[in-house]
Design brief:
This protein has eight helices and seven strands; from the N terminus they run H-H-E-H-E-H-E-E-H-E-H-H-E-H-E. The chain has 243 residues and is of the alpha/beta class. It has a domain of 164 residues: Vaccinia Virus protein VP39 (Rossmann fold, 3-Layer(aba) Sandwich), CATH 3.40.50. The chain has a seven-stranded mixed sheet, with helices on both faces. It is globular and about 50 Å long.
Amino acid sequence: MRRLATFRRARGLLRDFRYEQSDPARFYGALARDTAAMVDAVVDGGIEGAVVLDVGGGPGYFADAFAERGARYLAVDPDAGELHAAGLAHRTTVRAAGEALPFADGSVDACLSSNVVEHTPRPWEMADEMIRVTRPGGTVVISYTLWWGPFGGHEMGLSHYLGGHRAAARYARRHGHPPKNLYGESLFTVTAADGLAWARRARGARLVAAFPRYLPRWMWWVLRVPGLREVAATNLVMVLTVD
């Protein structure tokens, strides 16, 4: 993964982030390709031919990106509205909650969650389920946005530093409607410390890598500094190998 973490990649992802609301196909298409490349890089032997389960797959942008790399892609998402938001076909998607995945123990080669942890009130129950459905020797990849980072408020911008409820109210006043990600209902405070603490106590898997997803590799050192990492890392990736 280190070879992919360049300044050029970071700049491109930040540029595309501006289009999340106005041109979601551009943003999520680029994010899907980047996610597939990231998972391919951290899975031993790559994902060609592997069964990859995407927990919180959303409107379907990721399916083609993983298929292009030869993966056998599956996704789950509990929100019917989110599934149909882009009008894309869902060929391999199951409507289900991440905290109760409808798959047998050890049934997939790799399990991914990209920017979902911050949208569920019980993220570590979901993470435990991801370990359960992944085969021994398989890989679990969890990537999520840190609340205290500049993108923690999502479309609410930096106003989330005023508090989640205040940020939501401010957004509603400015735009005439509530934000898509409503604090306390579909957006929650989650930190790097939370995720790393879960990874250390996780049963059935061990943490093999952790890095800031959107930063170039020469900035990865920020993850080693408590406090600073909550603001500067912006998005934490945890890679675990299942025992």
